[in-house]
Amino acid sequence: MENAKEPPAQESPNSEAQNNVARQLAILDVTSRADGQTPEEIGAMLRDAFARRGAPAAPDIWLATVARDVSVGTAYVVSREAMEEAARRIAGSLSVSTAGALTSGHAAGAGPDAGSGTPHQHDQNGLPALPPGVRRITLPSLLAEQSPELRGYLAIPPGHGPWPAVVMLHEAFAIDAVMLRQVARMAAAGYLVLMPDLFSAGGPRRCLSATFRALKSGQGRAFADIEAARRVLLDRADCTGAAGVLGFCMGGGFALASAARGFGAASVNYGMIPKDVSEVLEGACPMVASYGGRDPLLTRSVPRLEAALKQHSIIHDIKIYPEAGHAFLNDSPTGPALLRPVLKLITGAGPDPEAAADAWQRIEEFFGQQLKHGTES
Question: Is there a contact between 260 and 227 (Cβ–Cβ < 8 Å)?
Fold first, then answer.
Protein backbone atom coordinates (compact mmCIF):
# COMPACT_ATOMS: atom_id res chain seq x y z
CA MET A 1 0.00 0.00 0.00
CA GLU A 2 1.34 3.42 -0.87
CA ASN A 3 2.09 5.69 2.07
CA ALA A 4 1.88 9.44 1.68
CA LYS A 5 4.46 10.25 4.33
CA GLU A 6 8.13 9.72 3.60
CA PRO A 7 10.75 9.29 6.32
CA PRO A 8 12.41 12.51 7.45
CA ALA A 9 15.71 13.21 5.77
CA GLN A 10 18.37 15.87 6.23
CA GLU A 11 20.07 15.40 2.87
CA SER A 12 19.93 17.53 -0.24
CA PRO A 13 17.06 16.75 -2.65
CA ASN A 14 19.26 14.61 -4.91
CA SER A 15 20.78 12.54 -2.11
CA GLU A 16 17.38 12.24 -0.44
CA ALA A 17 15.97 10.66 -3.59
CA GLN A 18 18.95 8.27 -3.75
CA ASN A 19 18.50 7.35 -0.10
CA ASN A 20 14.81 6.68 -0.63
CA VAL A 21 15.63 4.28 -3.46
CA ALA A 22 18.19 2.54 -1.24
CA ARG A 23 15.57 2.29 1.51
CA GLN A 24 13.02 0.89 -0.93
CA LEU A 25 15.45 -1.76 -2.19
CA ALA A 26 16.28 -2.70 1.41
CA ILE A 27 12.58 -3.03 2.26
CA LEU A 28 12.06 -5.31 -0.74
CA ASP A 29 15.09 -7.37 0.34
CA VAL A 30 13.59 -7.94 3.78
CA THR A 31 10.04 -8.51 2.51
CA SER A 32 11.30 -11.37 0.36
CA ARG A 33 13.11 -13.00 3.32
CA ALA A 34 10.76 -12.45 6.26
CA ASP A 35 9.09 -15.65 7.41
CA GLY A 36 7.02 -15.37 10.56
CA GLN A 37 9.38 -13.00 12.40
CA THR A 38 7.96 -10.47 14.84
CA PRO A 39 7.92 -6.78 13.88
CA GLU A 40 10.82 -6.25 16.30
CA GLU A 41 12.89 -8.95 14.57
CA ILE A 42 11.98 -7.50 11.18
CA GLY A 43 13.05 -4.07 12.42
CA ALA A 44 16.53 -5.46 13.12
CA MET A 45 16.60 -7.04 9.65
CA LEU A 46 15.66 -3.69 8.13
CA ARG A 47 18.47 -1.86 9.95
CA ASP A 48 20.97 -4.39 8.59
CA ALA A 49 19.52 -4.10 5.08
CA PHE A 50 19.67 -0.29 5.18
CA ALA A 51 23.34 -0.49 6.18
CA ARG A 52 24.11 -2.93 3.36
CA ARG A 53 22.35 -0.68 0.84
CA GLY A 54 24.12 2.42 2.13
CA ALA A 55 20.93 4.11 3.33
CA PRO A 56 21.13 6.30 6.44
CA ALA A 57 19.58 5.11 9.67
CA ALA A 58 15.83 5.64 9.81
CA PRO A 59 13.79 7.06 12.71
CA ASP A 60 12.52 4.33 15.03
CA ILE A 61 8.85 5.35 14.73
CA TRP A 62 8.98 5.13 10.93
CA LEU A 63 10.93 1.88 11.02
CA ALA A 64 8.25 0.36 13.26
CA THR A 65 5.61 1.19 10.64
CA VAL A 66 7.67 -0.40 7.88
CA ALA A 67 8.33 -3.51 10.00
CA ARG A 68 4.62 -3.85 10.77
CA ASP A 69 3.79 -3.78 7.04
CA VAL A 70 6.49 -6.34 6.24
CA SER A 71 5.26 -8.62 9.05
CA VAL A 72 1.91 -8.96 7.27
CA GLY A 73 3.52 -9.48 3.86
CA THR A 74 3.19 -5.93 2.51
CA ALA A 75 6.13 -4.00 1.09
CA TYR A 76 5.97 -0.43 2.43
CA VAL A 77 6.17 2.09 -0.42
CA VAL A 78 8.59 4.89 0.52
CA SER A 79 7.40 6.93 -2.45
CA ARG A 80 6.06 6.24 -5.91
CA GLU A 81 9.31 7.46 -7.47
CA ALA A 82 11.46 5.30 -5.19
CA MET A 83 9.40 2.20 -5.95
CA GLU A 84 9.55 2.78 -9.70
CA GLU A 85 13.33 3.27 -9.61
CA ALA A 86 13.73 0.20 -7.38
CA ALA A 87 11.69 -1.83 -9.87
CA ARG A 88 13.85 -0.57 -12.75
CA ARG A 89 17.05 -1.53 -10.91
CA ILE A 90 15.72 -4.99 -10.08
CA ALA A 91 14.62 -5.42 -13.68
CA GLY A 92 18.10 -4.50 -14.84
CA SER A 93 19.44 -7.76 -13.43
CA LEU A 94 16.72 -9.81 -15.10
CA SER A 95 15.73 -10.72 -18.64
CA VAL A 96 14.67 -8.09 -21.17
CA SER A 97 11.13 -9.56 -21.22
CA THR A 98 10.82 -9.19 -17.45
CA ALA A 99 12.14 -5.64 -17.58
CA GLY A 100 9.58 -4.80 -20.23
CA ALA A 101 6.79 -6.19 -18.05
CA LEU A 102 7.98 -4.02 -15.16
CA THR A 103 7.83 -0.78 -17.07
CA SER A 104 4.71 -1.32 -19.20
CA GLY A 105 1.40 -0.15 -17.78
CA HIS A 106 2.79 0.76 -14.36
CA ALA A 107 3.96 4.34 -14.78
CA ALA A 108 3.08 7.02 -12.25
CA GLY A 109 -0.53 7.97 -12.60
CA ALA A 110 -1.64 4.59 -13.95
CA GLY A 111 -5.04 3.61 -12.59
CA PRO A 112 -5.55 0.81 -10.10
CA ASP A 113 -6.45 -1.62 -12.86
CA ALA A 114 -3.64 -0.74 -15.27
CA GLY A 115 -2.13 -3.80 -16.82
CA SER A 116 -4.86 -6.22 -15.74
CA GLY A 117 -6.19 -8.50 -18.41
CA THR A 118 -9.80 -8.05 -17.25
CA PRO A 119 -11.32 -4.72 -16.14
CA HIS A 120 -12.26 -4.67 -12.47
CA GLN A 121 -15.60 -2.93 -12.99
CA HIS A 122 -17.36 -1.14 -10.14
CA ASP A 123 -20.88 0.14 -9.72
CA GLN A 124 -21.95 3.74 -9.00
CA ASN A 125 -21.26 3.24 -5.28
CA GLY A 126 -17.68 2.14 -5.88
CA LEU A 127 -18.46 -1.49 -5.06
CA PRO A 128 -17.35 -4.30 -7.39
CA ALA A 129 -19.90 -5.20 -10.03
CA LEU A 130 -21.67 -8.47 -9.28
CA PRO A 131 -21.32 -11.47 -11.57
CA PRO A 132 -24.53 -13.40 -12.37
CA GLY A 133 -25.85 -15.32 -9.40
CA VAL A 134 -23.95 -13.36 -6.72
CA ARG A 135 -25.71 -10.88 -4.43
CA ARG A 136 -24.71 -8.62 -1.55
CA ILE A 137 -26.15 -9.31 1.86
CA THR A 138 -25.81 -7.89 5.35
CA LEU A 139 -25.24 -10.67 7.84
CA PRO A 140 -27.36 -10.75 11.00
CA SER A 141 -25.68 -9.88 14.28
CA LEU A 142 -24.97 -13.32 15.75
CA LEU A 143 -21.85 -12.70 17.84
CA ALA A 144 -20.89 -9.78 20.04
CA GLU A 145 -17.39 -9.76 18.56
CA GLN A 146 -18.35 -9.67 14.86
CA SER A 147 -18.13 -6.55 12.71
CA PRO A 148 -21.13 -4.23 12.94
CA GLU A 149 -23.01 -4.22 9.64
CA LEU A 150 -20.99 -7.22 8.47
CA ARG A 151 -21.30 -7.43 4.69
CA GLY A 152 -20.98 -10.49 2.53
CA TYR A 153 -21.52 -11.91 -0.95
CA LEU A 154 -23.78 -14.94 -1.36
CA ALA A 155 -24.15 -17.30 -4.30
CA ILE A 156 -26.63 -20.17 -4.57
CA PRO A 157 -26.11 -23.06 -7.01
CA PRO A 158 -28.54 -23.60 -9.88
CA GLY A 159 -31.22 -26.23 -9.41
CA HIS A 160 -32.68 -27.54 -6.19
CA GLY A 161 -30.83 -28.12 -2.92
CA PRO A 162 -29.92 -28.89 -0.34
CA TRP A 163 -26.24 -28.20 -0.91
CA PRO A 164 -23.12 -28.21 1.27
CA ALA A 165 -21.79 -24.77 2.15
CA VAL A 166 -18.46 -22.99 1.71
CA VAL A 167 -17.28 -19.91 3.56
CA MET A 168 -14.89 -18.29 1.06
CA LEU A 169 -12.26 -15.86 2.37
CA HIS A 170 -10.79 -13.08 0.26
CA GLU A 171 -7.19 -12.05 -0.26
CA ALA A 172 -5.47 -9.06 1.36
CA PHE A 173 -6.40 -6.67 -1.46
CA ALA A 174 -10.07 -6.92 -0.39
CA ILE A 175 -13.09 -8.12 -2.33
CA ASP A 176 -12.95 -7.19 -6.00
CA ALA A 177 -14.38 -8.56 -9.23
CA VAL A 178 -11.77 -11.33 -9.30
CA MET A 179 -12.78 -12.56 -5.84
CA LEU A 180 -16.47 -12.41 -6.75
CA ARG A 181 -15.85 -14.56 -9.82
CA GLN A 182 -14.33 -17.13 -7.47
CA VAL A 183 -17.56 -17.06 -5.44
CA ALA A 184 -19.62 -17.66 -8.59
CA ARG A 185 -17.26 -20.43 -9.68
CA MET A 186 -17.61 -22.41 -6.46
CA ALA A 187 -21.40 -22.00 -6.50
CA ALA A 188 -21.48 -23.43 -10.02
CA ALA A 189 -19.68 -26.49 -8.60
CA GLY A 190 -22.65 -27.14 -6.31
CA TYR A 191 -22.01 -25.23 -3.08
CA LEU A 192 -23.78 -22.50 -1.16
CA VAL A 193 -21.03 -19.89 -0.99
CA LEU A 194 -20.72 -16.87 1.29
CA MET A 195 -17.72 -14.53 1.24
CA PRO A 196 -17.78 -12.28 4.33
CA ASP A 197 -16.08 -8.92 3.92
CA LEU A 198 -13.39 -9.06 6.58
CA PHE A 199 -12.83 -5.31 6.07
CA SER A 200 -16.48 -4.37 6.75
CA ALA A 201 -15.52 -2.26 9.75
CA GLY A 202 -13.63 0.34 7.74
CA GLY A 203 -12.17 -0.91 4.47
CA PRO A 204 -8.71 -2.35 3.81
CA ARG A 205 -6.77 0.79 4.72
CA ARG A 206 -8.20 0.85 8.25
CA CYS A 207 -8.67 -2.90 8.79
CA LEU A 208 -5.70 -4.62 7.13
CA SER A 209 -3.27 -4.44 10.06
CA ALA A 210 -5.91 -5.41 12.64
CA THR A 211 -7.06 -8.30 10.47
CA PHE A 212 -3.51 -9.64 10.14
CA ARG A 213 -3.00 -9.25 13.89
CA ALA A 214 -6.08 -11.42 14.38
CA LEU A 215 -4.64 -13.99 11.98
CA LYS A 216 -1.35 -14.12 13.87
CA SER A 217 -2.97 -14.30 17.30
CA GLY A 218 -5.73 -16.72 16.34
CA GLN A 219 -8.45 -14.53 17.83
CA GLY A 220 -10.29 -11.32 17.10
CA ARG A 221 -13.04 -9.79 15.00
CA ALA A 222 -12.08 -11.55 11.76
CA PHE A 223 -12.60 -14.98 13.32
CA ALA A 224 -15.99 -13.85 14.67
CA ASP A 225 -16.94 -12.71 11.15
CA ILE A 226 -15.94 -16.09 9.72
CA GLU A 227 -17.96 -17.91 12.38
CA ALA A 228 -20.96 -15.68 11.71
CA ALA A 229 -20.76 -16.56 8.01
CA ARG A 230 -20.56 -20.27 8.84
CA ARG A 231 -23.66 -20.04 11.04
CA VAL A 232 -25.63 -18.09 8.45
CA LEU A 233 -24.99 -20.81 5.87
CA LEU A 234 -25.75 -23.70 8.22
CA ASP A 235 -29.01 -22.04 9.31
CA ARG A 236 -30.33 -22.05 5.75
CA ALA A 237 -32.99 -24.61 4.88
CA ASP A 238 -31.20 -25.39 1.61
CA CYS A 239 -27.93 -26.38 3.37
CA THR A 240 -27.07 -30.02 4.01
CA GLY A 241 -25.40 -29.16 7.34
CA ALA A 242 -21.87 -29.65 5.98
CA ALA A 243 -19.59 -26.62 5.59
CA GLY A 244 -16.07 -26.07 4.28
CA VAL A 245 -13.78 -23.07 4.34
CA LEU A 246 -11.72 -21.91 1.35
CA GLY A 247 -9.36 -18.96 1.22
CA PHE A 248 -6.83 -17.15 -0.95
CA CYS A 249 -3.67 -15.36 0.24
CA MET A 250 -4.67 -13.74 3.55
CA GLY A 251 -7.89 -15.71 3.34
CA GLY A 252 -5.85 -18.87 2.86
CA GLY A 253 -4.13 -18.16 6.17
CA PHE A 254 -7.53 -17.75 7.82
CA ALA A 255 -8.77 -20.98 6.21
CA LEU A 256 -5.82 -22.81 7.77
CA ALA A 257 -6.39 -21.14 11.15
CA SER A 258 -10.13 -21.99 10.98
CA ALA A 259 -9.67 -25.67 10.10
CA ALA A 260 -10.32 -26.72 13.70
CA ARG A 261 -13.34 -24.43 14.15
CA GLY A 262 -16.35 -26.42 13.03
CA PHE A 263 -15.64 -26.97 9.34
CA GLY A 264 -15.69 -30.30 7.52
CA ALA A 265 -12.95 -29.44 5.01
CA ALA A 266 -10.50 -26.61 4.38
CA SER A 267 -8.87 -25.37 1.18
CA VAL A 268 -5.72 -23.34 1.86
CA ASN A 269 -4.45 -21.49 -1.20
CA TYR A 270 -1.04 -19.82 -0.73
CA GLY A 271 -1.97 -19.02 2.84
CA MET A 272 0.44 -18.00 5.60
CA ILE A 273 1.70 -20.96 7.68
CA PRO A 274 2.21 -19.99 11.34
CA LYS A 275 5.22 -21.13 13.34
CA ASP A 276 2.90 -22.90 15.79
CA VAL A 277 1.05 -24.68 12.97
CA SER A 278 1.03 -27.97 14.87
CA GLU A 279 -0.92 -26.35 17.72
CA VAL A 280 -3.26 -24.57 15.30
CA LEU A 281 -4.12 -27.87 13.59
CA GLU A 282 -5.02 -29.77 16.76
CA GLY A 283 -8.43 -31.29 15.93
CA ALA A 284 -8.47 -29.80 12.41
CA CYS A 285 -10.62 -31.00 9.51
CA PRO A 286 -9.24 -32.57 6.29
CA MET A 287 -7.24 -30.07 4.22
CA VAL A 288 -6.33 -29.50 0.57
CA ALA A 289 -3.57 -26.91 0.07
CA SER A 290 -1.97 -25.36 -3.01
CA TYR A 291 1.18 -23.21 -3.28
CA GLY A 292 3.26 -21.77 -6.10
CA GLY A 293 6.91 -22.75 -6.39
CA ARG A 294 7.84 -19.18 -7.34
CA ASP A 295 6.51 -17.93 -4.00
CA PRO A 296 9.46 -18.89 -1.75
CA LEU A 297 8.31 -16.85 1.24
CA LEU A 298 5.45 -19.33 1.68
CA THR A 299 6.62 -22.54 0.02
CA ARG A 300 9.63 -22.92 2.29
CA SER A 301 7.17 -23.37 5.17
CA VAL A 302 5.10 -26.04 3.41
CA PRO A 303 7.16 -28.94 4.90
CA ARG A 304 6.16 -27.70 8.39
CA LEU A 305 2.50 -27.76 7.35
CA GLU A 306 2.76 -31.26 5.94
CA ALA A 307 4.60 -32.53 9.02
CA ALA A 308 1.90 -31.09 11.30
CA LEU A 309 -0.89 -32.67 9.25
CA LYS A 310 0.84 -36.05 9.42
CA GLN A 311 1.51 -35.65 13.13
CA HIS A 312 -2.23 -35.21 13.77
CA SER A 313 -3.24 -37.88 11.20
CA ILE A 314 -5.29 -35.32 9.27
CA ILE A 315 -6.39 -36.30 5.76
CA HIS A 316 -4.64 -33.92 3.40
CA ASP A 317 -3.63 -33.17 -0.17
CA ILE A 318 -0.78 -30.65 -0.53
CA LYS A 319 0.74 -29.66 -3.84
CA ILE A 320 3.36 -27.12 -4.91
CA TYR A 321 3.18 -25.98 -8.54
CA PRO A 322 6.82 -25.30 -9.55
CA GLU A 323 6.12 -22.76 -12.29
CA ALA A 324 3.29 -20.91 -10.52
CA GLY A 325 3.57 -18.02 -8.10
CA HIS A 326 1.38 -16.32 -5.54
CA ALA A 327 -2.28 -15.72 -6.46
CA PHE A 328 -2.05 -18.18 -9.37
CA LEU A 329 -5.73 -19.18 -8.96
CA ASN A 330 -6.88 -15.68 -9.93
CA ASP A 331 -8.00 -15.14 -13.51
CA SER A 332 -6.61 -11.58 -13.58
CA PRO A 333 -3.91 -9.62 -11.71
CA THR A 334 -5.06 -8.01 -8.47
CA GLY A 335 -3.80 -5.33 -6.12
CA PRO A 336 -2.44 -1.81 -6.69
CA ALA A 337 -0.87 -1.49 -10.14
CA LEU A 338 2.24 0.10 -8.60
CA LEU A 339 2.96 -3.02 -6.53
CA ARG A 340 2.17 -5.67 -9.14
CA PRO A 341 5.57 -5.77 -10.87
CA VAL A 342 7.36 -5.96 -7.53
CA LEU A 343 5.03 -8.67 -6.26
CA LYS A 344 5.68 -10.53 -9.50
CA LEU A 345 9.42 -10.40 -8.84
CA ILE A 346 9.24 -11.39 -5.17
CA THR A 347 6.41 -13.93 -5.21
CA GLY A 348 5.81 -14.68 -8.90
CA ALA A 349 2.30 -13.27 -8.36
CA GLY A 350 -0.16 -13.58 -11.20
CA PRO A 351 -2.55 -15.94 -12.97
CA ASP A 352 -1.39 -19.39 -14.10
CA PRO A 353 -4.31 -21.00 -15.97
CA GLU A 354 -2.71 -24.45 -16.20
CA ALA A 355 -1.86 -24.70 -12.49
CA ALA A 356 -5.23 -23.13 -11.57
CA ALA A 357 -7.17 -25.74 -13.57
CA ASP A 358 -5.37 -28.57 -11.78
CA ALA A 359 -5.78 -26.95 -8.36
CA TRP A 360 -9.51 -26.38 -8.85
CA GLN A 361 -9.96 -30.01 -9.91
CA ARG A 362 -8.22 -31.14 -6.71
CA ILE A 363 -10.28 -28.76 -4.57
CA GLU A 364 -13.58 -29.90 -6.06
CA GLU A 365 -12.68 -33.59 -5.74
CA PHE A 366 -11.49 -33.12 -2.16
CA PHE A 367 -14.53 -31.11 -1.07
CA GLY A 368 -16.77 -33.58 -2.88
CA GLN A 369 -15.31 -36.45 -0.86
CA GLN A 370 -15.41 -34.60 2.48
CA LEU A 371 -18.59 -32.53 2.20
CA LYS A 372 -20.85 -34.19 -0.37
CA HIS A 373 -20.29 -37.88 0.32
CA GLY A 374 -23.41 -39.39 1.80
CA THR A 375 -25.46 -36.19 1.47
CA GLU A 376 -26.75 -36.71 -2.06
CA SER A 377 -29.73 -38.95 -2.77
Answer: no
Residue 327: how many CB atoms within 10 A of its CB?
Answer: 29
Question: CB of 179 within 8 A of CB of 171?
Answer: yes
Residues paired with 165 in a beta bridge? 192, 243
For residue 286, the model assigns a pLDDT of: 98
- The domain covering 134-372 belongs, at the CATH homologous superfamily level, to Alpha/Beta hydrolase fold, catalytic domain (3.40.50.1820)
DSSP state of 371: I
Give the separation between CA 324 and CA 328, rounded to whole angstroms: 6
**Could you give the CA distance from residue 238 to residue 234 in angstroms, rounded to a whole number?**
9
Conformational region of residue 316, where left means phi above 0, alpha means psi within -120 to 50, and beta covers everything else: beta
Out of 20-34, 73-87, 120-134, 170-184, the most confident range is 170-184
Cβ neighbours for 115, distance < 8 A, ≥ 6 positions apart: 104, 105, 106, 333, 337, 340
Q: Rg of the chain over CA atoms, in angstroms?
A: 21
Per-domain boundaries in the chain: 13-103, 134-372
